[in-house]
Amino acid sequence: MTALEAVAAYLPDQRIPIEDLAGELGLTRMQVRVFQRYHGLARVCRAPESTPLDLLLAAAAGLRALRGREQQVRYVLYARGMPVAVPYPGNPLHDLCRALGLRRAAAFTVTQQACAASLLAVDMAGRLLAAAREPGALALVLAGEKTFTQVARIAPETSVFAEGAAACLVSADGERDRLLAYVSRSRGEFDAGPGADPAEQRALSAQFQQEFPGSLSEVIEAAAGHAGTSLGRISLILPHNVNAVSWRQWCKAAGFPLARVLLDNVPAAGHSFCADPFINYRTAADRGLLRQGEKYLVAAAGAGPGATFSAMVFEH
Amino acid sequence: MTADTETAGTDAALRQRVLTSMTAVLPHVLRGEQPDVSESTRLMEDLGLTSTSTLELMLELEEDLQIQIDVEDIEPPDLASVGTLADFIAAHALAMD
Prior knowledge:
The complex is a heterodimer. Chain A is of the alpha/beta class. Chain A folds into two domains: 3-171, 3-Layer(aba) Sandwich (Peroxisomal Thiolase, Chain A, domain 1), CATH 3.40.47; 178-315, Thiolase/Chalcone synthase (Peroxisomal Thiolase, Chain A, domain 1), CATH 3.40.47. Chain A has helices at residues 22-25, 29-37, 52-60, 92-100, 117-132, 198-226, 245-254, 265-269, 276-286, and strands spanning 3-10, 15-17, 43-45, 73-79, 106-110, 138-144, 154-155, 159-160, 165-171, 178-187, 236-238, 295-303, 307-315. Chain A starts with a strand and ends with a strand. In chain B, 31% of the residues are buried. Chain B is mainly α. In chain B, 44% of the residues lie in helices and 10% in strands. The model of chain B is unreliable at 1-8 (pLDDT under 50). Chain B starts with a strand and ends with a strand. In chain B, helix 1 packs across helix 2 and helix 1 crosses helix 3. Chain B has one domain (3-96): Orthogonal Bundle (Non-ribosomal Peptide Synthetase Peptidyl Carrier Protein, Chain A). Chains A and B meet through helix 2 and helix 6 of A and helix 2 of B.
């Protein structure tokens, strides 16, 4: 059964108040206040001097379980919300494999599921390892992106992106943090397609917001059911950090206690694309919030183009 | 700054102040347009507001009326029209001294 052998996270020291980014993001004073008051965002991590490779290496450096086992790594998967990392011919993923000495690994990027791509990458890593049937084989899943472009800096009316990163060492049959269930739904109807007029885009965006709580509930409850449990028995949800309001609304609709959704990194660090759930794993583990035998849930949703809703249940 | 809950339910006088203030602040939120509004005017369909620009409107009203609005409980039906938003604000306002 797929398991997380180790999880590491990197959050740059620099935390910029979002009001200081108003000019760069094209936000009015009131739009900043909406983000602060309603969406629960306050500061975002930025590492202006760092490259994408620097971010990924900083996260991977926290994986002590990787040291001395580099030759066991068969796959390296880079989960990305944005399809392109750096201009051609740069390739931070292959640079990372060289830097870490992962000479036997097949390395590739997992994308097209927006900020839910890291969950797919973990599931895919486990399946690849299971198919390889190689004792001791490992996969390294990475997430973390730069806010180079305007579309990578802000999701209008939704979130402000940050530059955190995460690294997970995955095995096919580990004992710790065993993956019990993974459910994902891709929703192509939320893609207006190229050249769609602004009114259609707005209508789709409003429809996405309206359907968000129900669609998220569907995958979360399905994942809990596949894991042989129920939502009420999930000890903790490790969310994506897109904002606090969407989780508040979901908790209210689902009857799930907001205190059992780890939202502390939303105001403190911002939304680090696909890396959030595993950054939040590290926060939860460091605070002793994950207890042996308890089942916790990792959830993420992303929009553009289309939308994806995903949930995983692990047993710690 | 201290805040006290103004009423447990809807405050009729505050509701009227909210409606009056909306006429003043809507042009700002609508970037200069001066719409004709009534209680039945729909915020999104008639005025073209988004869920976020409706929240901007609430923050403008907070400043204009010197109140603080508890936005955590707001639901999509509260954002349906000028009247429903005034109802919500009058029931979720904290007066600032």
